[in-house]
Amino acid sequence: MKFIRNALVGTTALCAATAVSAADLEVTHWWTSGGEAAAVAEFAAALEGNTDHKWVDGAIAGSGGTARPIIISRIIGGDPMHATQLNHGRQAEELIEAGLMLDLSDVAAAEGWADIVNPTSLLDSCTVDGKIFCAPVNIHSWQWIWLSHKAFADAGTDVPSNWDEFVAAAPALEAAGKIPLAMGQQAWQSNGAFGVMAIAIAGLDAWSQVTIEKNAETAAGPEYAKVFEAAANARAFAANSNVQDWNQATNLVITGQAGAQIMGDWAQGEFQVANQVAGEDYTCLPGLGVNEIISTGGDAFYFPKQDDPEIEAAQKELAALLLSPEVQVNFNLKKGSLPVRGDVNLEAANDCMQKGLEILATGAILPDGNQTLSPDTQGQIEDLMVEFWNDPSYSAADAQERYAAIIAEAD
Questions:
Q1: Confidence class of residue 14 from pLDDT cuts 50, 70 and 90?
Q2: What are the distances in angstroms from CA 146 to CA 75, 287, 314, 351?
Q3: Is the per-residue pLDDT at 12 higher than 60?
Q4: 9 in any annotated domain
Q5: How far apart are CA 384 and CA 177, in angstroms?
Q6: Residue 119 needs a FRET pair 20 to 30 A away by CA distance; which of 98, 126, 244, 399 works?
């Protein structure tokens, strides 16, 4: 992404008009699964129901890893969309440095975002040099394992309450013809699962030393040796999980073909679309049942600069709408994520969402890797995970050695 700094940047006049003309706003995102599509439809309905603007959906099939290069290429190539999903954190920092993103500081001030966004780290991740460049819309945590009641019942064993119990139950699942662990064949999925295991097994202190402080000694040490050994076990459990996309892996759990999946709380949307009930059809364990903690990553919308004051005014209207109380509730109930507002009513939240809200209320939170590691470092780790998860002969010790070398050079 270093070439972004060489992009030619134009300037956009600030809109001072009080009346906003109707505009067609193209919005790009990678929300294409059933649960995600239901959630993003809430944003579109809110825009078109509360303004004269039209939501032009720019869904990009695939994961964020597929979509982000397309999004970035369009922005630096002079064909920017009007709004785009990215993960709040460091993914857009070079676009911001190049002057390609709209400053939303006036919207944030008018709407009181500093007082309502919880935790404050979400807004901090949108802030560069004191200016706010994105609207955070949800809190997504990777720290979950999802367990199929049907799969464990068919295997004649109790639903596990933690990772060790799951490991112990894996042979019974295999004997019953089940896939112990569902895992899609994409780098971000295996990397995310590794991160969840790192926090649960190495512990928060070791994880913080590695991911926040970039301590290569800890990455090469005994705490992370246990993580890589656990990942090697998980690799064996997922050997027959021959699906590509994360939601296909979730469907294996929903249908009882697989016992479990390590996946972020966006998986809730798929269970809801399938009319499954938390606590009855499936169980969700934060922190693999080892430690009740959640990461506070998630999604935000950035607004590439346009050479049209009326479009800019419409962009700012959309930014404000995304954090309005009703929209926050409607979107996040469908998405399975937690709202960024700490002042909305979520009585309708299911059992898993309530667990997340309770953990958030206790302050047992940590930053997401997108907030602490650069895209370049994330990419190197994902490349390692692709090789490790796809090659049973790649030893845990060798993978750990390479991982520690990446952390030593992390920026």
A1: very low
A2: 37, 11, 40, 13
A3: no
A4: no
A5: 30
A6: 98
Sheet holding 24-29, edge to edge: 54-59, 24-29, 83-87, 299-302, 134-136
Q: 3-state DSSP call for residue 85?
A: strand
- Which pLDDT tens digit goes with each residue over 52-84? 999 999 999 888 888 999 999 999 999 999 999
107 versus 298: which is more confidently predicted? 107
Nearest to 270 by CA among 290, 285, 250: 250
Q: Are 316 and 107 in contact (CB under 8 A)?
A: yes
What local confidence, expressed as pLDDT, does residue 369 receive? 67
> Which residues are CB-contacts of 316 (< 8 A; sequence separation ≥ 6)?
15, 102, 104, 106, 107, 303
186 and 274 both lie in a single domain: yes
Residues 340 and 391 in one domain: no
What global pTM score does this model have?
A: 0.79
* 4: confidence class by pLDDT, cuts 50, 70, 90: very low
Does 255 share its domain with 306? no
Query: What type of residue is 252?
Result: L
Cα angle 46, 49, 53 (rounded to 5 degrees) comes to 90
10 Å Cβ neighbour count for 201? 23
- CA–CA separation, 238 vs 215, rounded Å? 30
Sorted by sequence, the CB contacts under 8 Å of residue 212 that are 6+ apart come out as 367, 372
295 — phi, psi (to 5°)? -85, 155
Helix, strand or coil for residue 393? coil
Are 136 and 231 members of one domain?
no
